[in-house]
Write a structure and sequence with these properties.
This protein has about 375 residues and is of the alpha+beta class. About 60% of the residues lie in helices and about 10% in strands. The protein has 2 domains: about 120 residues, no CATH class; about 210 residues, Heat Shock Protein 90. Strand 2 and strand 3 form a beta hairpin.
């Protein structure tokens, strides 16, 4: 269903109609007989209200009426209003149609003008070509400008869409790291508490405290993440919630849960916040995978600077008969998140079984030009 006509088209049509019809009725425009010229003036101006919707149809109608007047009176209309009508129509077919339609509109306009010249034995072919061809070229320039503006706007919208998708993926990665690690630790500590609760209730205090600590840490991370999403006045990119100073606490939490971890850190005290967050999340995911898939086996963690590169390693020994519970199995998003974090920083990840029967996760992250 067609909407309302553009206000500019309606105003232009009304002004030209008043100008043409008023001139004929007042005698300011001398074109006889009025029985022919007046209907032609009305029929030539009123359709201009539809010029942007049906440019070729309006152009064909205006040209046809001009030829009818030339046949009926022996001369084409040479008044100012008719010149303005033809200029508007020539500009419109150039501005509103694509290349093929615009060329067809120009052919119709010039064809009508040349036909009128032939009917009255005129010779203003060059004038018609220059004037109406110039108006058509102005329309083509407008069409090109509009196309470029629309393409630029579409490009900006696509960039915005991609940015939203990337930020959603970043938030999903953060949510996975927070929830998967915390819930996994809570599940393990709950099993430990349940196992000793009936036989030695006093021994259940330690796992219950670990559950409490994990839940509080997860809630703190979630609150900070939600605050970033709610705050419209700050940088929309996700702000780091964890850093190098949190790594010892992370490792101690795994130790208290029964995972024997040795850690060696030989890295700068302060690094870009994004890299510190990446280091924390990579170690968190790596240790969580060890506990979920290999059990409480000896594990070594290494964070060391080698020149302009930071190397992270998580090595665990092979398990002996450990069966990973189904509710502890990862969805596969953890390792994918690690690869995305490292690749975003321009680094690489190596992960797979080790020769000793365990598993190794090694990440190389460049410090120069890394995550801000």
């Amino acid at each position: 269903m067609l909407g309302p006509l553009p206000a500019t088209d309606v105003l232009l049509t009304g002004a030209l109609a008043v100008f043409a019809v008023g001139g004929l009725l007042t005698g300011a425009v001398q074109e006889e007989p009025l029985a022919v010229t007046l209907p032609v003036a009305i029929a030539s101006t009123l359709p201009l209200a539809l010029r942007t919707r049906f440019p070729l149809c309006v152009a064909s109608l205006v040209v046809l009426l001009s030829i009818v007047q030339a046949l009926a009176t022996g001369s084409p209309s040479a008044t100012l209003w008719s010149l303005l009508v033809f200029l508007v129509v020539a500009y419109t077919v150039g501005a509103e149609r694509r290349e093929g339609g615009a060329l067809a509109g120009l052919a119709v306009m010039l064809g009508g003008q040349f036909t009128g010249e032939v009917l009255v034995s005129g010779n203003d072919y060059a004038f018609d070509t220059l004037v109406f061809g110039g108006a058509w070229l102005c329309g083509r320039a407008t069409h090109k400008w509009r196309s470029q503006a629309m393409a630029a706007e579409a490009h900006e919208q696509e960039l915005a869409r991609v940015a939203v998708v990337e930020e959603r993926a970043r938030i999903a990665c953060e949510l996975h790291d927070i929830v998967a690690h915390s819930l996994s630790e809570i599940a393990i500590q709950s099993d430990a508490a349940e196992a000793v609760l009936a036989r030695a209730p006093e021994r259940a205090a330690a796992p219950m405290l670990a559950i409490k600590s994990s839940a509080r840490n997860a809630l703190a991370d979630m609150r900070q993440l939600l605050q970033v999403l709610r705050d419209e006045g700050t940088d929309p990119q996700l702000q780091p919630t964890r850093g190098m100073e949190d790594v010892p606490g992370l490792v101690e939490g795994f130790r208290s849960a029964g995972l024997p971890v040795e850690i060696s850190i030989r890295a700068p005290v302060r690094m870009p916040a994004g890299i510190e967050l990446a280091v924390f999340r990579i170690l968190q995911e790596g240790l969580t995978n060890v506990r979920n898939h290999a059990g409480n086996v000896p594990t070594r963690v290494l964070v060391v600077q080698e020149g302009s590169e930071l190397r992270l390693e998580v090595h665990n020994e092979g398990s002996s008969g450990y069966q990973a519970r189904a509710d502890r199995l990862s969805t596969g998003h953890g390792l994918l998140g690690i690869r995305e974090r490292v690749q975003t920083a321009g680094g690489v990840v190596e992960a797979g079984p080790s020769r000793s029967g365990g598993y190794s996760l090694v990440a190389h992250i460049p410090l120069a030009g890394g995550l801000a």
